[in-house]
Amino acid sequence: MSGKKLVASLAIIAVSIAAVNITPARAQTLTDGPQLARAKICMGCHQVDSRRVGPPFVAVADRYKAGGQPMVEYLANSIRHGGRGRWGAVPMPAQPQVTEEEATALAAWILSLASPAK
Ligand code: HEC
């Protein structure tokens, strides 16, 4: 991540914490999955390929990949609203700082992490 982008991400975090809302123009500067996941603090609880507080994103992708395109919407909804009981005892809190657009981008990225068919 370039210094400029990092500064932009930090600014967005600051704005979203302050307002629990970010403008679409700012959201569009964060289009890439890993960057968005870091900016939205997903990586505080998740890792791509190992368990942290939440399930590894690769495991999420493997569980839902067979569902195809509708799973993008399903996961985007899970990301925004959180949930419990699907992966263990610890619930995921709702993520109101994530817009619908961002949640869709994150869901698509997570699904793209599925391991190759065995
Ligand atoms: C406070 C910790 C925490 C944060 C922050 C967090 N998650 Fe989670 N996440 C969890 C836990 C715990 C679960 C498992 C919930 C369950 O068992 O249903 C989970 C589950 C998920 C799932 C699987 C949902 C399903 O339907 O199976 C996805 C996808 C996900 N998280 C993505 C994200 C993204 C993207 C972000 C950032 C916007 C994020 N998470 C932020 C803890 C967190």
CATH topology: Cytochrome Bc1 Complex, Chain D, domain 2
Run of helices and strands: HHHHHH
Largest sheet: none
What ligands does this structure carry? Answer: heme C
Q: What share of residues is helical?
A: 40-55%
CATH superfamily: Cytochrome c-like domain
Strand portion: under 5%
Query: Helix tally?
Result: 6
Report the radius of gyration as a whole number of Å.
Answer: 14 Å
- Number of spatially distinct domains: 1
Summing up helix and strand content along with how strands pair, one would put the structural category as mainly alpha
Mean model confidence by pLDDT: 84
* CATH A-level architecture: Orthogonal Bundle
Query: Total strand count, please?
Result: 0
GO molecular function: electron transfer activity; heme binding; iron ion binding
InterPro entries: Cyt_c-like_dom, Cyt_c-like_dom_sf, Cyt_c_ID
Pfam families: Cytochrom_C
Organism: Advenella mimigardefordensis (strain DSM 17166 / LMG 22922 / DPN7)
